[in-house]
Amino acid sequence: MTDTDLSLRFTEQELAMLGKTADGLSAYMGKSVLAEVGIDDDAEWVIFAIPIGTDDKPDDSAMHVQMGGPGARFVGNKGGLDLDTESYDCQYLWAIQITADPEARFIRLDDQGEEFDFSNSLGELLPFDTTDEALPDPDIELMEDLGEDDEDLPEIDDEPDLRPKGPLH
Asked: pLDDT in tens for each of the 169 residues of the chain?
């Protein structure tokens, strides 16, 4: 494989982001969203789609794709489906493909397979932030100086008042 061939492949980090996106979409939509990785003209792509159940009435206006089967490669959870041996009729949602264009490594395709958006950063084309940034420590946030907003707060005496409140009879 040449360097050019490698540039048209998703990195492990990009595949992880795409898998997290499929899992996030599944949680958000309440349906399994599959993300299948494929290759065409030496460039990789990933399709996001929802499997259509045998009891579901398919949307005839939506684009359909077959996903799964021997040799299929998926990122993210597979919704409990046996995608290694079975193929499923799915409602196509959207896709990301890699290009050799130095101005746009990634192209996002809409629900009709038309170019919708492009970027050199995969994260800009995804519907969720999939970075693994650490969440802020709430204890540290509580200790932070409130800055200029301190002027609006009432004065608080840090020493407890140990005097009795009211008469002691």
From this structure: 444 466 899 999 999 999 999 999 999 999 999 999 999 888 999 999 999 987 777 777 889 999 998 999 999 988 778 888 888 899 999 999 999 988 899 999 999 999 999 999 999 999 877 666 655 666 665 555 555 555 665 666 566 555 555 555 4
How far apart CA 48 and CA 140 sit, in angstroms, is 39
Sign of CA dihedral 29, 62, 66, 97: negative
In Å, what is the CA distance from 9 to each residue of 21, 53, 128, 162? 18, 32, 22, 70
Query: In the chain, where do the E strands start and end?
Result: 34-40, 43-51, 64-68, 73-75, 87-98, 106-109, 115-119
For the chain, the distance separating the N- and C-terminal CA atoms, rounded to the nearest angstrom, is: 92
Cα 86 to Cα 67: distance, rounded to the nearest angstrom = 9
Write down the residue that tokens 């290009």 correspond to. 99
Contact between residue 98 and residue 105 where contact means Cβ atoms under 8 Å apart: yes
DSSP run (H or E) holding 138? helix 138-143
Contacts of 109 (CB under 8 A, 6+ apart): 94, 95, 96, 97, 115, 116
